[in-house]
């Protein structure tokens, strides 16, 4: 190999939360691992998604919680201070300085390569730095693609400098009038945050409900809460044209109220946030040199190995696979793929037999392949994915919805309970509203899904996740005694609703 080519055992593309975890786990048997990152180490979650968005949402949650408790409400005499909220958000996002995360990468024994990577062939890449310099890189054993996803901006909004989630979470001013196009997680969370900060918010939803991936009652609760706080939520609404005129954006919005009933509204706002979906960030990776399709997700098996390519050297994890769309699930996949690579290419194992770079003896990953819940298989991606939406009320769910369970031909039972009827709700706040619902596979007497809607229900989700992943029989859950008075008492009430 020429002297001007840098060789590593493993090369990971992307130093976000997924790439960092994959690289760290892959290095634990002594493999030399390089991480390539063209932007900030720490990725989307640290600077433009999870962390700054929750920093924007938290102040409104705290204020609402205090105002809901008699005796404490009188202590609140004002509203949020937008400048202070944005300043705190800047602190949470480390002022978009990745020095601390770079130090972590280097402290973990990983090599950081700054620049944009493109494949030139199997296990071969070039990394182009911001200064235009190009470095050839080769992976002896494996490459992991963890480049995440990017926001999709519809063509009709492409010319008006529309915000995506990045601009919304890093904004340094609060627009007086904000249109949010979309009805999913980003749309509902940012509508909540900017309404709290004082924006006049309009949410334009093409479909007929918010949070379409969740149970219908969850989206309905969020819609009611947004409307109660002065947010306009328009369903069956599509932007047909958009023009920016100085500091304003003029939108033509078509509203459908029936198959042949449509009216067009002119809506003028200061900013437009597009939250209509995301796509795998694979368009400019040189995938065509490998016979793969640029811009498409990388389909993988449960070991996170790319299925469309032979040789067992290319892996992918996180949003880029189309399997996951959250940081926590992406990190789970990263741990799996890192462990698979560390075991398969363990430098302490002699020789190569299963392909050019796998150990002669069966790897631990191969030995565990037949185990459904092996640490070398991302089994939870199929039916045990947890999701939290930090709206007010919060929405948290795991596993299958009722509709998904029926589509899977399960023998479905549904148990529900109003959280406001719990003793804990009376203590927590006056007028507490919320609901818990679980989906049961009657044939096996186990939970396959659970949804919670209400204040602070995010912290209730992990118990449900353990029950779904552990396939705990409801008869056994009866013996898991919830503390009183806490919201977790709903588990007892759900079982009682089942006649237990």
UniProtKB/TrEMBL annotation:
Ranges where the Pyridine nucleotide-disulphide oxidoreductase dimerisation domain occurs: 385-491
InterPro entries membership: Class-I_Pyr_Nuc-Dis_Oxidored (IPR050151), FAD/NAD-bd_sf (IPR036188), FAD/NAD-binding_dom (IPR023753), FAD/NAD-linked_Rdtase_dimer_sf (IPR016156), Pyr_nuc-diS_OxRdtase (IPR001100), Pyr_nucl-diS_OxRdtase_dimer (IPR004099)
Gene Ontology biological-process annotations: 2-oxoglutarate metabolic process
Disordered as annotated region, ranges: 348-372
Pfam families: Pyr_redox_2 (PF07992), Pyr_redox_dim (PF02852)
Residues binding FAD, per UniProt: 54, 147-149, 319
Keywords recorded for this protein, A-Z: FAD, Flavoprotein, NAD, Nucleotide-binding
Cofactor(s) named in the record: FAD
Residues in FAD/NAD(P)-binding domain copies: 8-329
Co-factor binding comment: Binds 1 FAD per subunit.
Molecular functions (GO terms): dihydrolipoyl dehydrogenase (NADH) activity; flavin adenine dinucleotide binding
Sites where the protein binds NAD(+): 182-189, 277
Cystines in this chain: 45-50
Family under the similarity heading: Belongs to the class-I pyridine nucleotide-disulfide oxidoreductase family.
Protein known as: Pyridine nucleotide-disulfide oxidoreductase dimerization region
Organism, scientific name: Cellulomonas flavigena (strain ATCC 482 / DSM 20109 / BCRC 11376 / JCM 18109 / NBRC 3775 / NCIMB 8073 / NRS 134)
